[in-house]
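ingest -> validate -> predict -> emit
validate: passed (alphabet ok, no gaps, 186 aa)
predict: started
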Amino acid sequence: MTRTSVFCFGMVIFLAGCMLNRLASKVELKEPTFSYLRHEAASLDETKVDVNFIINAYNPNPVGLKNVYVDYALLTEGSQFLKGQGLSLKLNPAGDTEITVPTEIVFIELINSLGPLVERILLTGDYSVPVTIKGVIYGKPTLYDDFEEGTSLLSFNWEFSRRENIPLPEQQIKNIMQMMLKQKIH
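emit:
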């Protein structure tokens, strides 16, 4: 490489990094909010069902985010019941983005997690599901707005684990259990 090509290459890298920093420093970034919209069955066989959960992401920031991905798994009572890989986490600037979350529900894994869950509900009367969310967020983030785009020069990989208690509709569960008991008696 000639010195001119090295200089030009260096300038391109420097300018890309500057643009990312300029976009990131425009405003104090706020956390986006997410809400469930709907779900769609994608495929079904004797061992699993693939379901797409459609969520809305509202990004209050004037800059968007792309080139970030998520691999995840949801577990309850120590058993995995949902998983997905390569979810593209793209957020439009200052507005809503519809995100499709592809998930794979393996029936045997779901059954393995339901047994201890039902037992816990019957013994304790606690109508919530302790869910552990494990995952990895990774990529080479790009911030953008209507006028410019800045890509990070470095890739990142961040593992996370979080535990949430998801409340279940108590009355509906009681109704289902009563129906099951009636069917067992007859």
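Helices lie at 3-25, 107-124, 170-185.
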